[in-house]
Structures are given as structure tokens and as C-alpha cells.
Design brief:
alpha+beta; OB fold (Dihydrolipoamide Acetyltransferase, E2P); 3 domains; five-stranded mixed barrel; 3 helices; 15% helix
């Protein structure tokens, strides 16, 4: 090989070498550009201000869902790793329904609403994927009461599942329920607000065991954390309350409107009266301090039943407050002479 041929071959090798280098560099540049064009994963909401005007992917737990007058959906989501950090997600189109507690992955562009608030704009709800559901905290009434007293912010906005017994007979329209840990001997009580739009379609009574999903929110008007009903399940009905006259009249408001089964001795019975007076003891043992209760028997069919003063009877009925006499009375539905 002469000198001229060697130089020509060397020049050809150099060209091929540089071509390979340029090809590799080009591939690297294209890869970098492709990375730059992909949405960034941002799981820390506090870092979103660095991505203003850019498309990102993030995750969150839905704590609120609303619809604008034009039909757009607005979600409020919590950062899974920091339950005190929230983000608004504005969905321009789509008809999907989302549930509180859904864990979603969402892609959208970061928009600054004002100096402090960032919002994620989603053009289509197809860019939102439901990847799970937040597992509700399952608490007993004592646990919930204790945590509400010491650290209510622990559950702020998150769904909580709690089971308990209705402490009082619900009154229509139901605006709140009070739950306790035992139907008759409960020590702890928690109040659950019932939104007007969430009126109950099940019949509830004092002592019923229920399971509730609630959210915990801070009320800025009274500076308190409040429980709000999401949904309710009747686990088991308590039925009628079998109580003594003394137990009933010691705290009648507790049994107001509840189904009662009670025994006692008749006093002041006249067949043309609509009421009888029920005492806890017979006339021979009675004093002015004995407990008594008015019983409305106007709705009973007493055909074939003989009643006289001092008869010992069993009465079933509903306890109510009579504003005319400023006292409690029992509306009887059944009467049995014992």
C-alpha cells in the first residue's frame, strides 16, 4: 500500500468514526429532548410552583368534588404523603363521577390562580386514573372521641368509619345523630351532622347499632372540628326499650319518641277518660314521692278488657312530650293486664 492509499484509507476511517460519534450524540440529544417533552412526576405539592405552565403528573386523595355552573368538575385532593397539603384540580371536559376517598393519578398543566394558589388544569378526564381508594379509619366511639379531643387534625377531610349505638331517638327532619358505645350504658358521645341534602331513607330508633362514614372538617365559625355524615348503614335494630318507670322518668328526654315497654299500677281510671296515671307501686305502698307517668289510651281498643284502679299492667307505646301539660306522656299502642 503506497502512502497516498494509506492517507485515503485513514481519512475514510476518521469520517466513519466522527459519523458514529455524531450519530450517538444525536441519539443522546433526541433522548434528552424526548425526556423534556414528557410530563414530570411531582408528588410533593410544595414543588409545583417550579412547574408553572408545564405539564405534570401527580397523585392525590379526593376529599371534595363539585361541579361549576358550566358543567366543569372541580376536585380537591390531598397529597398522600402529607395530609395537610391540598390541590385543586379543574377538569374542563368529561362526565365521570368521582368518590370522596378515591386515590387518583392525574396529568395536567400547572396554573397559578393568584400569588399563593396553584391549580392543576386537566383538559379531559381521561387524563385521570383511579388507582385505589383511601382505606377509611375504622374507629370505635371511645377511640374517635379521644382522638377528636387530642388531635382532630389527624383525620381532617379524610373519611372515617365509625360504629356505635344511637343515643337518642332521631327527630324529623334529622339534622344530627348522637352515637355512643353502648345502647344503655354508653359513656362517650359524639355528634354527627346530617346535611340537608343527605336526608336518611332508613328508619332509625334509639339504641340501633349503625355504621357511619363521616368526614371531619373544621368549622371556622365556632372554632371546632365537626363530624359530617357521608353515608349510614343500619347494622341491627335495638327494638323496644324495656325499662322501669323510675329509669324512664329519671331521664325521659333520652327516650323521647322511642318505643317503650313499661309496667306499672293504674291510678284514677275511669272508662270515659283518655288518660290513665301509671305508678311504680300499688296504692298500699305509695307515697307522694312515688314516680308516675300519664298514659294516653285513646287509641286502644279496650273491648273485653276490664280495668280498675291498682291493676298491674304492661304498656307498649311511644314516649312524647306534651307541651299542653309541660310533661312527658306515653301514647299507648298495646295494653296487657298482668
Amino acid at each position: 500500500m503506497n502512502k497516498s492509499d494509506f492517507k485515503s484509507k485513514l481519512k475514510s476511517i476518521k469520517i466513519e468514526y466522527f459519523a458514529i460519534i455524531f450519530l450517538v450524540v444525536g441519539i443522546i440529544i433526541l433522548y434528552i429532548l424526548s425526556l423534556a417533552s414528557k410530563p414530570s412526576y411531582v408528588l410533593d405539592y410544595s414543588e409545583l410552583d417550579e412547574y408553572e405552565g408545564k405539564i405534570v403528573i401527580t397523585k392525590g386523595i379526593i376529599i371534595d368534588s363539585d361541579t361549576t355552573s358550566r358543567g366543569e368538575t372541580v376536585l380537591n385532593i390531598l397529597e398522600p404523603d402529607d395530609l395537610n397539603s391540598s390541590l385543586k384540580v379543574f377538569i374542563e371536559s368529561g362526565e365521570r363521577e368521582f368518590q370522596i376517598g378515591d386515590l387518583i393519578q392525574v396529568k395536567g398543566s400547572v396554573l397559578r390562580i393568584n400569588e399563593e394558589v396553584l391549580e392543576l388544569i386537566v383538559v379531559n378526564d381521561k387524563d385521570i386514573e383511579i388507582i385505589g381508594h383511601w382505606h377509611n379509619y375504622r374507629l370505635s366511639i371511645p377511640e374517635l372521641a379521644h382522638r377528636m379531643e387530642h388531635n382532630p387534625n389527624e383525620f381532617k377531610f379524610l373519611p372515617v368509619e365509625v360504629s356505635g349505638f344511637l343515643k337518642y331517638e332521631p327527630r324529623e327532619p334529622i339534622t344530627s345523630l348522637r352515637l355512643t358505645e353502648h345502647p344503655s350504658e354508653g359513656v362517650y358521645t359524639v355528634k354527627v351532622d346530617v346535611p340537608e341534602i343527605n336526608q336518611l331513607d332508613i328508619e332509625l330508633h334509639k339504641g340501633d347499632l349503625v355504621s357511619l362514614n363521616v368526614s371531619i372538617e373544621y368549622n371556622e365559625n365556632n372554632f371546632e372540628y365537626e363530624l359530617t355524615l357521608i353515608n349510614i348503614t343500619l347494622v341491627s335494630s335495638y327494638g323496644e326499650w324495656v325499662v322501669t318507670l323510675t329509669e324512664l322518668m329519671d331521664a325521659p328526654f333520652v327516650f323521647e319518641n322511642a318505643q317503650i315497654n313499661i309496667d306499672g299500677y293504674i291510678h284514677d281510671y275511669e272508662s270515659y277518660y283518655n288518660y290513665i296515671l301509671l305508678f311504680d307501686l300499688p296504692a298500699t305502698q305509695r307515697s307522694s314521692a312515688n314516680t308516675s307517668l300519664w298514659v294516653d289510651i285513646s287509641g286502644l281498643n279496650l273491648t273485653g278488657i276490664m280495668l280498675q284502679d291498682d291493676y298491674y299492667i304492661s304498656i307498649k307505646g311511644v314516649l312524647y312530650y306534651d307541651p299542653q301539660y309541660f310533661d312527658y306522656a306515653l301514647k299507648a299502642s298495646e295494653l296487657i293486664v298482668i
